[in-house]
Amino acid sequence: MPYAEPVTLTGDLVTLTPLSPQDHDGLVAAAGDGDLWGLTYTSVPRPEAMAAEIERRLGLLREGRMVPFTVRRSATGEPVGMTTLMNLDEPNRRLEIGSTWLARSAQGTGVNAEAKLLMLAHAFETLGCHAVELRTHWLNRQSRAAIERLGAKLDGILRQHMVMPDGSVRDTCVYSVVAAEWPAVRGELQRRLGTRLAGASA
């Protein structure tokens, strides 16, 4: 399967659907849940910039450089964020999971863990990746902790790597999961999600 082919990935809590301009209003509402665009350590589009961000991601899809998703609650279909497969390197069988943001009400609910499980499974089991990267701001301790809970290893820090919308310069933490680690990472994610789902149904 080509790396840059849109796909729908479905789980118990979350469904990742190909990003569409029709998702605009739902994504504006999701970004407003917590005023996420005000955070300095991540890039979440403001309402007036959401259409341009959707088109930017779809443009990268057309160029074969990104597979963008809308993150939805499986139970309702409600959009709660965006995520992507990006920096697609098919010859070397690598890619990055990134450009992710989630509504405040979706954070800490298992949505992120299941979304990552779905994308990692697609990368390793369908696309045959050797390695999958995850990157985040050095100052985004919540994101770093979530990535480390996945079982990803810190490869290093790219210092003064990226200019943020507010003009600050980001140091980027680069993590990865390699194919040999995937079975253990998958098992731990499934255990965590199973515990959460069992608790929710009790």
Task: Walk me through the structure.
This protein is an alpha+beta fold and 202 residues long. The chain has one domain: Gcn5-related N-acetyltransferase (GNAT) (Aminopeptidase), CATH 3.40.630.30. Helices cover 34% and strands 31% of the residues. The protein is built from 5 helices and 8 strands. The chain has an 8-stranded mixed beta sheet with strand order 1-2-3-4-5-6-8-7, with helices on both faces. Helix 3 packs antiparallel against helix 5. The longest helix has 20 residues, at 182-201. It comes from Ornithinimicrobium tianjinense. Residues 14-176 form the N-acetyltransferase domain. GO terms for molecular function: acyltransferase activity, transferring groups other than amino-acyl groups. Pfam families: Acetyltransf_3.
- Helix/strand structural class: alpha+beta
End-to-end distance = 39 Å
Please name the fourth-level CATH homologous superfamily. Answer: Gcn5-related N-acetyltransferase (GNAT)
Number of domains: 1
Architecture, according to CATH?
Answer: 3-Layer(aba) Sandwich
CATH topology: Aminopeptidase
CATH top level is: Alpha Beta
Count of beta strands: 8
How much of the sequence lies in strands comes to 25-35%
Major beta sheet summary: 8 strands, mixed
Mass-distribution shape: globular
Q: What helical percentage do the residues reach?
A: 25-40%
- Uncertain runs: none
Rounded to an integer in angstroms, the radius of gyration calculated over CA atoms is 16 Å
Gist of the model:
The protein is an alpha+beta fold. Helix content is 34%, strand content 31%.
